[in-house]
Design brief:
Shape: globular
Number of helices: 18
Number of strands: 0
Oligomer: single chain
Largest sheet: none
Distance between the termini: 56 Å
Structural class: mainly alpha
Radius of gyration: 25 Å
Helix content: over 70%
Order of helices and strands: HHHHHHHHHHHHHHHHHH
Length: 335
Amino acid sequence: MAQDLARGVYTRLGDWERARETAQAVVDARPADPVARFRLGEALLNLGRYAEAGAAFMSTLQQRPSQDQLETTAVVLLEAGLPEEMRELFGRVCAALGRPDPTVPHAAGTDERLIAWQLEAAELLVEEAGRPDMARPILLGLFADNPGHPDVRTALAELAYDTDGDAQSAWELVAPLVESGHDSADAHGVAVHALADLGRLDEAVALARACRGRWPHSTLVFEYMEAYCHGERRDHAAVLEATEHGLARWPHHPGLLYLSGRSQLTFSVEEGLPTLRAAIAADPDFHEPYVWLALALGKLGDRAGAAEAVATAERLSGLDLGWALKEPADPAETR
C-alpha cells in the first residue's frame, strides 16, 4: 500500500517523524501485521520514544517471529546505538536467536560463528550508530581471545586508524596479514593508509599498486591512495597516471578529480581548471579544490573569481586562506 512505500522512503531519508506517522497508518490498517508493528517500533526507537518502541517490538516477538525478523530486530537496535532502555529487549532477541549478547566482551570465545556475530555488532555500532566507544571493548575482547584472527585484527586496525588516528597501531595489526598475503582488500586498505600516514610513501605506493591489480573490482579506491602518495612526493606525472586509472572506474570520484586537477595545474592551468571544477561539482563541501581553483584563477588574472573561491573555502573549512590570493610563481609551489 502507499503508506508502506512512503514509510520506506522516509526511513531511508532519516525523517523518522514522518516514518512514524506512515508506519502508524499501516498498523491502524493492519493491526495484526507483525512487520508493520516492527517498522513502527523502528521509527519510535529512532525518535527516542523507547517505551513505545519497546512495546511495538515486543508485540512482534510475541507472534513467533522468523529467524530473519529476529536478526533484523537485533540489527535495528544496534544501528540505533542500543540505548540502555532497549537492553532488556535486546537480551530477549539474542536469547531467541540462541546467541549471547554480542556487546559483552569475550562472549564469543573462539567460536567462529559467534566471532562473526560480535564483529557484525561492532561494525554496526561504529558505522551506523557512530558509537566506537561501544565497539572498542567488543573488539579488544575478541583480539585477546583470538589474536591471530584476520577479521578481528582488521576490524581493530580500522578502529585504531579511523577513530584514534593511530597509524602505527593500525599498521602493526595488519602488517602480519599483508606479509602473509592474506586475501583481504580491507586489511590491505588499512595498511596502505597507515603506511602513507607514517611517511613510508614508497611502500604505500607499491602496496596500493599491487592492490589495484589484485582486487580490480574492489570498492576501495586504491588508485586514490597511490595518487595521494605520489602527490606527497610531488611526482605529478605519476599522480596523473594513477588518477587516470581510477577515473576510468569512478569518473565522478571527488578525491581522484581533485588530485588530478591539482597535478594538471603544474603542466597547464587551462587543463586543470575543468577538472577542479568537476571535483567541486562532485563534492561541493570539500574545501581544498576551491583553494587550488583560486590559485589557478589568480594565474589567469581572474581576481574576483579567485576571491570568491577562497571565500567559499574559508566558509567550508573555518580556516584563514587569504594566502591563496597572493600570486605564487607556480601553483605547484603551494601545498
